[in-house]
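Morning F.,

Quick status update on the modeling queue. The single chain you submitted on Monday has been processed. Sequence for confirmation:
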Amino acid sequence: MKTLSSRERLTRLFAGQEIDRTPIWLLAPYHPVSFYADIYHLQSYEKLIPYIEKYCDTFDRRPYPSGICFNANPELKQTFRTEKNDNGITEIGEITYKDFKLQKSIYRGKEGTRVKYYIEDIEDLEKLIDVPYVAPTPDLSSYEREKAELGDKGLMMADLGDPLGIFYHLMSAEDFSIYSLTDYETLLSLSDIVYKRTLDLYRYLLERDVCDVFFLVGAEFAGPPLVSPTKFNDLCVKYVKGIVDLIRSYGKKSILHYHGQLFDVLDGMKQINPDALHTIEAPPVGDCTITQAREKLGDMILIGNIQYDDLAHQNAEEIEQQVKQAIKDGGERFILSPTAGPYENSISNKMLENYITFINTGIRYGQHK
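Structure tokens below.
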């Protein structure tokens, strides 16, 4: 068949239609975002850009302001500052509502790195979520312009998260694991509240026809080894399935992001039934191969799964073999992708060449018959 544009290729893949080749997604969005390097304006990536422009398929991922715990109450505020002294640098974030205050600090210096999270007591989480709720209504004025700038390079993607995502940003994974044992019912009741707010924000964008695809991050926080897989349905499936079903009811698509140990929660992923699952990490980093995920999830689009660290450290021949195998295992319902995005402002020549090998190999072995 004829060579498709990236927008056509991704749209047809989601629709279950024939495409010309395996899409190749480097995770880097077209427009700058805070959590990835602005690769289009960094010298380190200069030689990579022509390959992206010619061969890669872009989901132009962007967050939309959702307040704190999906609450846009104007009296609920978050501020950041940096303190420096001879021993190092401390980054401090504060969340305040009237006389209630939470603080997070990250110290980096001679004594190493120390992190104190906002939530170190479940009662503080209850107080934070108890702040009177005001639904977020983020500014969407730049959307049409950015969509036109992206053009046929790919699809527009919103990153709004899910109820578990707020816990990820507020507390340590270890504390969340402990609360899942000591305060399980409290976690569920708070998640119920946040879930209703989450749906409000999704509806706000969906009713305004904003974005083609929605990227859901947070599910991995409720997975093994820190949380028993027996609790995955209660803490994750019922909420994320509701969000995915809402997205689908508006004719839009969803990608669920999940790092780490996936195998024991594959049944939960099947219940959620997103349009696509990223990133299916095989041993030794994760515990699930693309083949195992395919056997359980059927024709769901799988996205993955070349490790970012392998792109940084392995040789080109190893990257070529990994890409070739991933495409073979993924089949025709597959998007070739790294496990993480380009978040460094400067990468080595080796990593640059591995990115190019990744793309070239994807083109060579990803042609559909």
